[in-house]
Write a structure and sequence with these properties.
49 residues, rod-shaped, single chain, mainly alpha, 67% helix
Length: 49
C-alpha cells in the first residue's frame, strides 16, 4: 500500500540515517573548531593541537 502511494519506507530509513550522519559530523566539526580557536587564543603551541 505504501509503495502505491510513492512512499518507499526503505528509502525513508536510508535518508534518515544520512541526515543523522550529517548532523553528527556537523556537530563534531563545530565543537572541534571551537576547541581549536580556544587553544589558539590561549597561545598553546601547535604540538598541543
Amino acid at each position: 500500500m505504501e509503495l502505491a502511494d510513492s512512499f518507499d519506507p526503505v528509502e525513508q530509513k536510508r535518508q534518515k540515517q544520512l541526515d543523522a550522519e550529517l548532523a553528527a559530523k556537523t556537530t563534531f566539526e563545530l565543537v572541534a573548531n571551537e576547541y581549536i580557536e580556544k587553544i589558539e587564543r590561549e597561545g598553546k603551541s601547535a604540538a598541543t593541537l
